[in-house]
Design a protein that fits this description.
The protein is mainly β. 4% of the residues lie in helices and 37% in strands. The protein has 2 helices and 26 strands. The strands form 5 sheets. Strands 6, 7, 8, 9, 10, 11, 13, 14, 17, 18, 21, 24 and 25 form a 13-stranded mixed beta sheet that branches.
Length: 364
Amino acid sequence: MELKEKVNDSGVQGKWSRIQAFEKEEAKRFKLSKIGTSQIQVRFYLDSKAFMRCAFKYLQDGFLGGEDVTVKADESGEIPPDDKKGITKNSYFQSLTQLEDGTYCAAVSNARHLINLSFCDTNPFKITKVEQTDNILWQPDTDSEHGITAETEAYCKELAEVYPGVPVQIFDSYQSGADSYTKPGSFKCIENSDITLYDGKNHTIVGLEITPQNNFRNGWKNAEALFLENAHLEVRNLNLKDPKIEGKGTAAAIIAFAKGNSDANSYLHLTNINIYGDSLHVYANNGDYGYVGGAVAFSDVRDLALDHVRIYGKDALLDRNGGQSIGGLIGYAQMGQHLKISQSVFSGFINGNECENGTGGLIG
């Protein structure tokens, strides 16, 4: 295996790694299987559960997360010649494409890619755009009639099968012991405020579960959502089926804090978003004084626009025990220069028990 290219003198250009480096029992990086009568399928991951404390930032032999890697094989067992055809893949995403302004667009097609959006803070790749190219299953879709399928197996199911008896957890912060990781089965909020556009390409994220974490995020009060905070973000053409989001104080399906403060150019645009399912549940307890919204928990950006944002389900529930406010679409919206909600709806049950500043069908 060799690097296709190196970025800013990172990684080891042209360095080869022997297969033994990937077949350690604790890492479970490598798998061989027979295909048909005469072919062998080789499957391995560059990231490794064995190095979870590094949050999948650790790649074998100094590879940098986000770099392209070329894999070649030779029947002789020796290093393949230079003209041997190989397979080139990105080490973190389906692909990473440089844009005209020098930033990058990440193509994501599975849950590992979503997780890795938070882990590009220590390398030269500034990701400003994300395109989802397939449905993403966090948990399997158990809907027998209208189940969503994907090319990649559900993340929690895949890891539970590979690591029996080991909880599915994601590195969350440099705390000690259990406080370093998400609770079992929980996704980690995307914490990358460089992202300005997430285009779901009309694909679906299924069974996303986010629960309160053990560590305390300074300034964000352990809020939970797909995106933790961003003041310059557009999300479009995305479906979330049966999300279960629980925060200590603040929670939403799409973004917890669109916090623009005094930034005259701050904005949040949500277009063609469906958040649905009979198991849809967005909840916050009174652990911290906060907000709950079906799509947005808190917003004070100058330009806030929701167009064709639909939240619905037979047992869809927004739940807030105490705290500030709760709304079907937005928990709290401080008026900026522009606020527009069009062709958007919430259809479900809202419980704003003891909310001080109001409960609303659209805005709290």
